[in-house]
Amino acid sequence: MKYVIIGLGNFGASLAEELTKIGHEVIGVDRNMGKVEMVKETITHSICLDSTDEHAVKQLPLKDADAVMICIGEDEGANLMSTALMKKIGVKKLISRAITPLHQTVLEAMQVDEIVHPEQETATRWAKRLNIDCVVDSFELTGEYSIVEATVPERLIGKSLIDIGFHQHYNLIVLTTMSIEEGKNMLGVNKKVNKIKGIASPKTVLNKGEIMVLYGHMKDIERFLEE
C-alpha cells in the first residue's frame, strides 16, 4: 500500500519509518529540509515542500495514495490548511492529527476519516492499524498478544460466533461487538460514535458494518483478517 505522511516531527517520522519497515511505500513530506534529510535513508521517499501550497501539493501522487496522514503538530493553522487542501483534492482516506480539543472539533466538522492523538497513541500502534485494511484500532498487551478492533468481513455477515468457531478455527476470542451510530460534537456536527453491545456470547450474530473486538496472538489475528 502507498501512504503519504505530511509532517515529519517525532510522530510523523516514526510512523513513516514503521510503515516502511512493514513493507509499504511511504512518501514523507515536510517544509523543513532538516527533517526531510533525517528520514531520507529510512523511508521510501522524502520530499521538502509546503503542504499549505496548493500548487506544490498537487505535485504529490495523492490520487495513488491509499491514505494521507496530516501529522503536523507544531502549527495548528498549517495542520488545518493542509487538511482542507486534502479534502479539496479528494484523497481516498484522510487522517489528521488533533492538537487541542477545539482542533479536534474542527477536524470533525471537516469530516476527516480518522483523527490521531499522538499523546495517547504510538506510531507503532497506528502502523499496525494501517497495515491491514479492516483494522480499526489495536492495543498491544505483550510483544505477541493484542486486542484488535476490526470491521466484520463480508464473508461472516449474518453468522453467529458459534457457527464461525473463532477459537477452534482461528485460535481467537471475540470479546464484544460494536455498532457505529451517529452522534453530535460540541458544534452540533454529526460524528461517529461506537456503541458497545456487551460481552459476546456464542449466539452473538455479526452484522454488516459492525466492529469485532478480537483477542489473540497477532499472527493469528493477521491470518484471520487476511483470509
In the CATH scheme, the class of the largest domain would be: Alpha Beta
Sheet-strand content, in percent, reads: 25-35%
Overall mean confidence score, pLDDT = 86
Main sheet summary: 6 strands, parallel
CATH superfamily of the largest domain, by name, is NAD(P)-binding Rossmann-like Domain
Helix content estimate: 25-40%
Overall geometry comes to globular
The CATH architecture name of the largest domain reads: 3-Layer(aba) Sandwich
Query: What series of H and E elements makes up the topology?
Result: EHEHEHEHEHEHEEHHEEEH
Protein name: Trk system potassium uptake protein TrkA
Domain RCK N-terminal: 1-116
InterPro entries: NAD(P)-bd_dom_sf (IPR036291), RCK_C_sf (IPR036721), RCK_N (IPR003148), Trk_Ktr_HKT_K-transport (IPR050721)
Organism: Roseivirga pacifica
What does this entry show, briefly?
The chain is an alpha/beta fold and 227 residues long. The chain has helices at residues 10-22, 33-39, 54-57, 76-89, 101-109, 123-131, 161-164, 166-170, 218-225; strands at 2-6, 25-30, 45-48, 67-70, 94-97, 114-116, 135-140, 145-151, 173-184, 190-199, 211-217.
Can you describe this structure?
The protein is an alpha/beta fold and 227 residues long. Helix content is 32%, strand content 30%. It folds into two domains: 2-123, Rossmann fold, CATH 3.40.50.720; 132-225, Regulator of K+ conductance, C-terminal domain (Alpha-Beta Plaits). The chain has nine helices and eleven strands. The strands form two sheets. Strands 3-2-1-4-5-6 form a six-stranded parallel beta sheet, sandwiched between helices. A hairpin with a 4-residue loop joins strand 7 (135-140) and strand 8. The protein is globular. It starts with a strand and ends with a helix. The mean pLDDT is 86.
